[in-house]
UniProtKB/TrEMBL annotation, chains A, B:
PANTHER family: HTH-TYPE TRANSCRIPTIONAL REGULATOR GALS, LACI-RELATED TRANSCRIPTIONAL REPRESSOR. It holds the Pfam family LacI. It comes from the Bacteria. Signal peptide: none annotated. This is Substrate-binding domain-containing protein. It comes from Arthrobacter gyeryongensis. Coiled coil: none annotated. Residues 320-342 are annotated as: Disordered. InterPro entries: HTH_LacI, LacI/GalR-like_sensor, Lambda_DNA-bd_dom_sf, Peripla_BP_I. SMART domains: HTH_LACI. Residues 7-61 form the HTH lacI-type domain.
Amino acid sequence: MVKAHRVTIQDVAVLSGLSICTVSRALRNLPNVSEKAQAKVADAAAKLGYKASSAAARLAGGNTGSIAIIAPTATAWFFAQAVEAAEEVFGDSGFDSVLISLRGKSSVKRKIFDDLLGLSQRVDGVLLLNVDLSESEVALLAASGLAVASVGMTSVPWDNVGIDDELAAWQATSHLLGLGHWDLAVLSGRETQENSVLTSSDRLKGFSRALKDHHLTVHPDLVINSDSTIDGGRKAMNELIAHRSLPTAVFADCDEAAFGALMAMREHGLSAPKNVSVIGIDDHPMSWFLGLSTVAQPVADQGAFAANLLVDRLQNADAPNEPSNHFLDTKLIERKTTRRQR
Amino acid sequence: MVKAHRVTIQDVAVLSGLSICTVSRALRNLPNVSEKAQAKVADAAAKLGYKASSAAARLAGGNTGSIAIIAPTATAWFFAQAVEAAEEVFGDSGFDSVLISLRGKSSVKRKIFDDLLGLSQRVDGVLLLNVDLSESEVALLAASGLAVASVGMTSVPWDNVGIDDELAAWQATSHLLGLGHWDLAVLSGRETQENSVLTSSDRLKGFSRALKDHHLTVHPDLVINSDSTIDGGRKAMNELIAHRSLPTAVFADCDEAAFGALMAMREHGLSAPKNVSVIGIDDHPMSWFLGLSTVAQPVADQGAFAANLLVDRLQNADAPNEPSNHFLDTKLIERKTTRRQR
DNA sequence: GCCAAAATTGTAAGCGCTTACACTCTTCTT
DNA sequence: AAGAAGAGTGTAAGCGCTTACAATTTTGGC
């Protein structure tokens, strides 16, 4: 095969009759370039099919043209959606997406922070998806010189997009209460160091608040850990069925946990809403399939929104506006697993 | 904040008392480096926490240290699993993973091939997951100088890992036939330019072969397109229910399509296996939940295996062995949606 | 019209690494 | 024991880009 000669900035300079320097500036839309020059350069570059070498650009102090997407896992439905949405935004803006999955291993996260300098040299920015960061990690990232944005994180010194988790849980719980249920259990994700689900504690708060609104209180025995997984939800529900008096309704803090609960019920010859009403949060595609009542959250939108904020920061480095925090709407979707308590 | 001075190869050279050149060679385990020098360099590098600049390395003709993972989508269960497995292998071998999702858009694929030179300059290799490539695209990639490996592709001039799709379909169909079913419909992914499911035609072949083994033939009216999606499966099954005589068993060429079929049945007051036996391929986690009989395929294993092959190629560029093609085992899992036909 | 200020363009020095090639030591031959 | 061959190491020239800073052209005020 013929080794195609790479089109360099030099070629563009020659064709446009300008210097490399002017071409470089024109290409990056820097000031101090006449319109005429700008046009000539654009023309020559197009004609030659010129694409800047990101390696050279980076080495010389420019940008890498890539952004890291860091997520606790890439396989869970939520993250797969958010990652793809972000990747699309980045791709459309000309950035490569470097995927980093923590896979529930704190060692991976540690490695990233140990080599933050290395990372900052390979990417221009970082998009964090629900990553549980210690204060010092937040500080390190903020000081790294990298542009940062996140989804589903709170009190961070950069742009964040999420839902109001407390409100979502409140919506779900209030729906149950509104149907006349007052004997409620909650399947809650646990906060662990290894695999923290940042949102769970807020959701638990929303649950409590809804109860309080109805002059009820949370019974500790009816707060059960689900790990926010199908299997965890199943185990939690099994426990509920085996060892405790069955509540009339269950709020699972994510749909996966609700699936597990439904499964456990079926294994015991029970079903929703006949024996127990069940509601989740997410609106996983399978929820529709199973008729699960839930509170829907826009997942791809969150990823795309945060990605756009990050791209904006990167492209308008000049505008140093305050970090913003955006809440996207959640919406109760009543399906078949919840009904009025008689 | 203090701008930390980047540790360069120069620093390592000074500390080890050797020249930059020797350090560079030692670091990359090239020949012609004495053990003493090797040790000194390793020592100095460790002491300084030296990490080579991938940009500089790349620019100078070395490697980028990143690998592109190209998939038709990142959200589907299969791809999310495979991507994460590959990302883990790459990460452990020191490579960054650049995720590129085609998102069912041929325009994205075209853009990649238009800029293959650009890509080859940003990554060392490419892992293709079930990407439908034209002959010319295969040729371009093979000639690009990039290391390539793939999952689920056939007759490609590079390492490939997959399952025997025809066999898997044969296994599923034979199970149905073995239970006494002879009136079968198949829900098959369609081959379209936009969103081709490469495996579908092989699976259809396996279906045919199983029928033939039992001296039956495929009835064209009972081959229905499902797009390999839940919704497609649902529509397909609805069609079957509405317009045609119901077969006694249905083979869906992936679990998602089977889910849709089950849903459609439920909407019409039917259920599996009571009215129709249903089997899929994949062993999606939800299949267990729904009791769907299926043929399991190792998904993460395929991604990891292919990723390892690619890393091997990259790290032992000297060994120019033939491209290999590996088939991983599939296994019938009999659950509750299939039963003997009386 | 003249000159300073502003706008535009060019020159050249790296960024941190790889690699062709030159050079210095060892080892073996014979 | 002298010379060739080879192992180990160093020198220096880039890779393609960005960016101070210098050089040049344009603009505008009076």
